[in-house]
Amino acid sequence: MKKNLFLLIAILSFATVFSQKIATVNSNEVVFSMPETKTLQGKLEEKQKELSKQLEVMYKDFQTKADALKGMDTKTMNAIQEAKMKELQDLQKRIESFEQAAQKEVQKMEQDLSAPIIEKAKKTIEEIANERGYSHVFDVSNGSLIVYPKGDDITDFVKSKVATSAATSAPVAPATKKK
């Protein structure tokens, strides 16, 4: 009796494993196809341009001061030259510090703005998997999964649903008041 019960449990477990549907998705492709990602890229480019302009002003100031130092008369007192040299070194340190801070700021902005996009893609993938009855969905975009069971690729379904939900939930621009 125990052997029959064990055999029945083994058969049911085996049948359950093989009755599960498996699919693959390329989450990077989904995320990059989302309109929110294009908006994010636009915001990042705008921020980078803003920071580049500020950095350019700092570079011009540095070059002006370097040229002034080079053009100093040899009769100028050493104390003045040393002060100008110190000022130039301080400005160079500020430029380097600004470059590092700007890079960190852009990276943080990208992380903050991309988190809800990634979450939306993940939620949509889960919805598609539930709608289509998939028990396992493997993400093939990260490269860590070299061998995986062949299954249906639902990337196009997810991209389609994301595009449809973006079109139906697009914010309406507020009406402007006439004065």
| Tally of structural domains | 1
Helicity level: over 70%
Between the first and last Cα atoms, what is the distance in angstroms?
89 Å
Q: Look at the structure and name the CATH superfamily.
A: Skp domain
Point out poorly predicted stretches: 172-179
Helix segment tally: 5
- Tell me about the biggest sheet? 3 strands, parallel
Order of adjacent strands in the largest pleated sheet: 2-1-3
Which geometry do the CA atoms define? rod-shaped
Computed over alpha carbons, the radius of gyration is: 30 Å
- Provide the CATH topology: Protein Binding, DinI Protein, Chain A
Determine and state the CATH class: Alpha Beta
Question: How would you describe this protein?
Answer:
With 179 residues, the chain is mainly alpha-helical. It has a single domain, classed as Skp domain (Protein Binding, DinI Protein, Chain A). Helices cover 73% and strands 7% of the residues. It contains five helices and three strands, in the order H-E-H-H-H-E-E-H. The chain has a three-stranded parallel β-sheet, covered by helices on one side. Helix 2 packs parallel to helix 5, helix 3 packs antiparallel against helix 4 and helix 4 packs across helix 5. The chain is rod-shaped and about 95 Å long. The chain starts with a helix and ends in an 11-residue tail after the last helix.
Short description:
73% of the residues lie in helices and 7% in strands.
Key words describing this protein structure:
mainly alpha; Protein Binding, DinI Protein, Chain A; 3-stranded parallel beta sheet; 3 strands; 7% strand; rod-shaped
